[in-house]
Amino acid sequence: STVPTQALTLLNNPFVLGQADRLAARVQAASADPAAQIDLAYRIALARPPSAAEAAIARDLAATQSLASFTHVLLNLDEFVYMR
């Protein structure tokens, strides 16, 4: 389980935001295609490709906000935070 301060740290901490920016820069450097960027970000962060629904949501977020916003969300997913 998480405590509120852990969740807030993942949302607001400059280190976490910087890592999201670095991940966004890495996938931008690898490809100019938004779909390929999203697929690569999922593979790097979660070691799997996104589902069709996840890819659609990610494309919308990256288009309306930024790729860094999407990677920040990716780093806050339960699947990234918790090991099964």
Describe this entry's structure for a reader.
By secondary structure, the chain is mainly alpha-helical. The protein contains six helices and no strands. The chain starts with a helix and ends with a helix.
Task: Give me a quick take on this structure.
The protein has 84 residues and is mostly helical. It has 6 helices and no strands.
Write the layout of secondary structure elements.
Elements: H1 4-12, H2 14-30, H3 34-46, H4 52-64, H5 67-75, H6 78-81
Total E-strand runs:
0
What oligomeric state best describes the polypeptide chains here? single chain
Low-pLDDT sequence parts: none
Mean pLDDT: 90
What is the element string, with H for helices and E for strands?
A: HHHHHH
Alpha plus pi helix count: 6
What is Rg? Answer: 13 Å
Q: What class would the helix/strand composition place it in? A: mainly alpha
| Biggest sheet overview | none
Principal-axis shape equals: globular
Which percent band covers the strand fraction? under 5%
Q: Percent of residues in helical segments?
A: over 70%
- Give the termini separation: 13 Å
Structural features:
single chain; mainly alpha; 84 residues; 6 helices
